[in-house]
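Hi there,

I know you've been waiting on this one. I reran it after we fixed the sequence typo, so this is the corrected version. Both the input and the resulting structure follow.
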Amino acid sequence: MAEPVPLPPDPMELKNLEYRPVKVRGHFDHSKELYMMPRTMVDPARETQEAGRLSSSVQSGAYVVTPFHCTDLGVTILVNRGFVPRKKLNPDTRQKGQIEGKVDLVGMVRLTETRKPFVPENNPERNHWHYRDLEAMAKLTGADPIFIDADFKSTVPGGPIGGQTRVTLRNEHLQYIITWYGLCAATSYLWFKKFVRWTPGL
């Protein structure tokens, strides 16, 4: 993984930095937690062991997203602190993990998402977020529309499990297929029109 760089304060600078590790210093505002759910914990070791199985021991829960005031930059960002099971969704059940005071964090830059087909709408009233709508999340919490996934090293006893980043790159195979088939069809038509002569009566 690349060495973390200081977080740029301008959201426009982040557009080309998705999945880039950045470092920040500041403190959390636990009073404004958001919950992305349902989610399962990213655990590469378990996923490798269970690959190909019909059943899985995966546990459902949520990602805890918490405003984080960056003292050096003077901005408040959103940090996905990590995974908690459903029974630990209420912060009163994990008070030991509610970090107080100034901390240093490393996390991966994440950009906003658009809702995919079959994904439910976000429900800010119930604090259920199914996808990252940074503008809406920032408006609700008073943060800037900047989002990072805290790394695994950010995990503290009793708190969310960090390192919950699934790298998903754009799949442009379908676009390539359509483009090349379209070019092939156009070329075949032009070739046919230029070189093939219709025979009367056929």
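Quick highlight: Residues 135 and 145 are 6 Å apart (CA to CA).

Best,
R. S.
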